[in-house]
Every structure is written in C-alpha cells, then in structure tokens.
Amino acid sequence: MPHTKELENFVTQVRRDILRQVHKVNSGHPGGSLGCAEFFTALYQEVMDYKSDFDMNGIGEDLFFLSNGHISPVFYSVLARSGFFPVEELNTFRLINSRLQGHPTTHEGLPGIRIASGSLGQGLSVAIGAAEAKKLNKDSHLVYTLHGDGELQEGQNWEAIMYAAGNKIDNLIATIDVNGQQIDGATDQVLPMGNLKAKFEAFGWDVLEVKQGNDISKVIEGLNEAKSRTGKGKPVCILMTTVMGHGVDFMMHTHKWHGVAPNDEQLENALAQNPETLGDY
Amino acid sequence: MKKYTNTGNKDTRSGFGAGLTELGKSNENVVALCADLTGSLKMDEFKKNHPERFFQIGIAEANMIGIAAGMTIGGKIPFTGTFANFSTGRVYDQIRQSVAYSDKNVKICASHAGVTLGEDGATHQILEDIGLMKMLPGMTVINTCDYNQTKAATLAIAEFEGPVYLRFGRPKVANFTPENGKFEIGKAVNLTEGTDVTIIATGHLVWEALQAAEQLNEKGISAEVINIHTIKPLDEEAILASVRKTGCVVTAEEHNFLGGLGESVSRTLVEHFPAPQEFVATKDTFGESGTPEQLMEKYGLNAEAIVKASEKVLKRK
Does residue B193 sit in the same domain as residue B166? Predict the structure, then answer.
C-alpha cells in the first residue's frame, strides 16, 4: 500500500488519543481500545465507503456497529479524526454534559454513532437488522461490526449468528477481536470458548483469519478479502488476533489494563512510545 | 347513563392482525417480525401478502428486538410480535439499550398479556409488563380495550415516531368502541359521565368497568368511566378533571397493582389532587392455569370487583 506510513501515523495518533482520553478522567478502557487502533483506522481511513455528512439511516453508504462499546476511546478518536466531529471534543470524554459518553450512545446525537452499546452481545442483532433493511432498500453497501471475543459468551450472539447464516445475510462482515483477555483474566480461564473458527463455520458462516491484527496492512488485506466474499449467500466473519494494550509495552499481553487508566507517570511513558504524528487535540 | 353495545366478542389480537394487514397495504416501510408465534399474533395475513417484509426470527426474542432496532436504520418501521412476557421481561435489556436509549422507532406488539391467556399458566401470564415498559424513558405504553380499538391503535402507532409498547390479549372480549374510530395516543376517552366515583380502566377491563357502572347506576351511584388506553404518556388532565368532580377513584387493569396504571394515577393525584383510590388489579401475585373467566373472578378483575371497589372508595370520601 502506497500510503502505509500515513496510516501508521494515524494509528499512532489514535493511540495517543486513547491514552490521553482515559488518563484525563482516570476511567475508561485503554486495553481493548489500543488493540483495535489498526482495525478502526483501516475501516474509516481505507475500507469503508461512507458519507461525510452523517445521516442516521445511512442509505447508500457502508455502516459500522461497535458491539463491545467499552472500547469507545478508539471509536471516538477515529470518528473525530475522520471528520465526524471536532477533534477537540475528545477533551470531553466521560465528562458531564458530553456527547462522548462512557459507552457510545445516540442519545446525545454524536455523529457517527447509530446505536447505543455497552451492555454486551446486542450489536450483531442490530447489524443484521440494518443489513436486512439494506437488502429491502436495494442498497448494495455493506454492514461491518466489531465484537470482543469474551463478548461471545453472551447468548444473544449465537441467536444472531444462527439467524444470519439461516437467512443468508451476506452483506455483513462481523469482526471478532480475538485478544484472549477479558476483565477477570484470560478468556481461556474465565470461560473457554474452544475453536471459534469451527463454531462460526458450523453455524454456516464464511470465516477468515487475520493473525496480525496489529499490522495495518494485514488488517486492510483481511477486510478487503472479506469484502470480496460478500454477496455469496453467507455472512462473513473475520477472526482478528490482536494484542490487548498494543503499542504500550507495559499494557500488552495482560487483562490488567482492560478498564484501568494510566497515572501521570505511566501516561508519560506510554506517550513516549507513541510520538505525536497528527497533532494532539 | 350512556350505554354501550357489544357488537360481538372478538379477540384484541385479531384487531392487531387486521391493523397490520392494513398497514401492509398502506405503508411500505412497515415490516413485521415474529418469534415463532405468527398464528397466535394473527400476523399470517401480513406474511402472506408481503413475504419480503415479514421476518421469521425463530425462538430468539433478544435477537428479534435487536434486528428490529437495526431495521429502523434504513427507515423501516418494525412491528415485533410475540407474547407479552417474551416481549418485555425476557428482552428488557435489549429494549432498554437498543430501542429506548437508542431512540429507535420500534413497535413492540404484545399479545397474551395478563392472566386471561388462561390455561398456559403463570409462566406465560405476565402481570408486570406495563410497569417494566412505562419505566423506560421515551417509551409510549398502550393497552387497548377491544378489537376495534386495537386495530385503530395499530394503525396510529405506525404514524407516530418513537418506540411504542402495544399490549393486547388472547381471549375474545366485548367489542364496543366504534369501528374505524380515530385513535389518539395519550388521549383518554370519557365513556360515561358521572358524579360520585371515577372508574379509570385500561385494556379489556374497560368493558368490565362499563358493566360495573350500570350495576352501580341501578344502586343509585353515578360512575364516570374513563378509558385510559395510553398509560404513558398519561392523560393527567382528563383524570384530574374527573376526580375533581367525583372526589374518588377506582383504577382497573389486568396487571399487578405495583407498577401498573393504578400507580400512575396515584402519582398524578398525589401531586395535584389527593383523593381516595381503590385498585382493581392483581395484588403482587403470579397467575395460574384456568379459564379467563375463572381467573378474572379469582383474581378480582371483573365488573363485580369494580362494583365492590367503588362502594368501598365511596365510603372513604
């Protein structure tokens, strides 16, 4: 990709935004957010076809739904830096009277958000509804989602996974952030989910794996491959392996930074590892 | 005293089915979703006429609510159909987050509400759904009284922007409101004028209230019957105007007295015009198997219970 360097710079700035947002209010979820910086950047800077003027109905454009709403810091950063709202508004994350609620909502009218998420396991159903509406509207654009791997422990996902295959929802690309961590520890220890690829395939999905979910080129490649598999009668799933806390050495490979903000010293250390590229807000 | 004629018993769920059939023809944005209860919800006709706009979800109510929320993104007006229990209690968090908090234009249509679904018993007889739904910010809550009104309400909520809970039932009950009457969301309907006691009823207990009013009339008691088909937003003006005149009130609903219409009326009165009130409702209990008539009698939900409550409240004035 000719502009990989630009995208990498974007990712680095997003990481700074994530860290600075959660540090300021001493709350929020940096771990999963950092791990998905490449994914969001790939979607909004490269893969998705969307309109700059936000419209809730999203007819004639690709849609994205974040199901694991607690990684809002990465979503907000990428939306802001993709032009949905002023980057300075990231300063209001989790503050009173802000549009940037702890978990994403539509209630305050923040452009780019089409559904509230936070209570886990609901996003895939919503995305299927939006995908069904696209089919009714003869709108050939796609619907993208992101889910945590731990989130798949919620039963509603499997209702939705079954429905999507049974009803040939083939304009849908669901990505699972396989970071192997959840609040209480490693996913394998909290509730082992076994072979996710085999499970999705058994339910009738077309599954592809992106083993390097923190390599922007690989993520884009995976998403483009997924796109090429749409419209063929099956919903498409990407199992994307990421490292929770990626880009900050002391936050990586542990669940400990799932929902904990860095202190002043830790922030300084973390920011030093992610130098300013596009300008801090 | 004004009298009403029952033009023949009909089930309110069929009123919903008839309304949905009409909407299928008149509004191409209306889509219908069902969780394996198409026949029970009387959605067959819509399904037959518009297979592309009918979505069989299977026995997966949580998924149904989420899909409905998603369909509004794209301009659809989804009507979900299942029993009241599975429309509310089973999917409360899905409604709360994906529908109510997300301001989605979903119409949650719930049949088999209350004990009168009968023999299936308490697992299916939800008596808490009005409370659950009215507590959600932004949710409109409607409980219609007969076939004609259920049909009219089904048509009306399609024109209304915002989440709605529409509650109706299984048994055949008196059909007495005008055919093709206009349904105004949030507007109480005064059925009889009276001076001694106000009877505020919702759902098919409105007919029981009318029967009670006739019996009270024979005893020289003048009862004003108000049909509150919309529990939220509540027509407080109509309620207060009547109670200011009569000085006491009986509320009647097929629902737990905790969280139902009665408590909404109580709050209104306490804030503006405190007055004695009696509750015709279930009293913090589950239901059980039986015929609708037996259950209405056992749980004190019929005209006789309303007469007794009226006589009691009159003594408290």
Answer: no
Q: Is B27's Cβ below 8 Å from some Cβ in A?
A: no
Residue B272 in contact with partner chain A when CB distance is under 8 A:
no
How far apart are the C-alpha atoms of B48 and B53, rounded to whole Å? Answer: 10
Question: Which of the residues A115, A168, A171 would you substitute to probe the B interface, choosing the one with the greatest number of B C-beta atoms within 10 Å?
Answer: A115
The pLDDT tens digits of the residues spanning A206-246 come to 999 999 999 999 999 999 999 999 999 999 999 999 999 99
CB B161 within 8 A of CB B105: yes
3-class secondary structure, A173: strand
Fold entry, domain A4-272:
Rossmann fold (3.40.50)
Is the model's pTM score more than 0.90?
Answer: yes
* C-alpha torsion A221→A222→A223→A226, nearest 10: 120
Which residue does chain A place closest to B58, by CA atoms? A163
What is the three-class DSSP state of B305? helix
CB atoms within 10 A of CB B314: 19
Question: Are B66 and A63 within 8 A, CB to CB?
Answer: no
Minimal CA separation from B137 to chain A, in Å? 11
Determine, for residues A125 and B66 on separate chains, whether the beta-carbon distance falls below 8 Å.
yes
**Cα gap A133→A125, rounded to integer Å:** 12
Give this complex's ipTM.
0.97
Same domain, B113 and B149: yes
Q: Taking CA atoms, what residue in B is nearest to A69? A: B97
On whether both B197 and B229 belong to a single domain, the answer is: yes
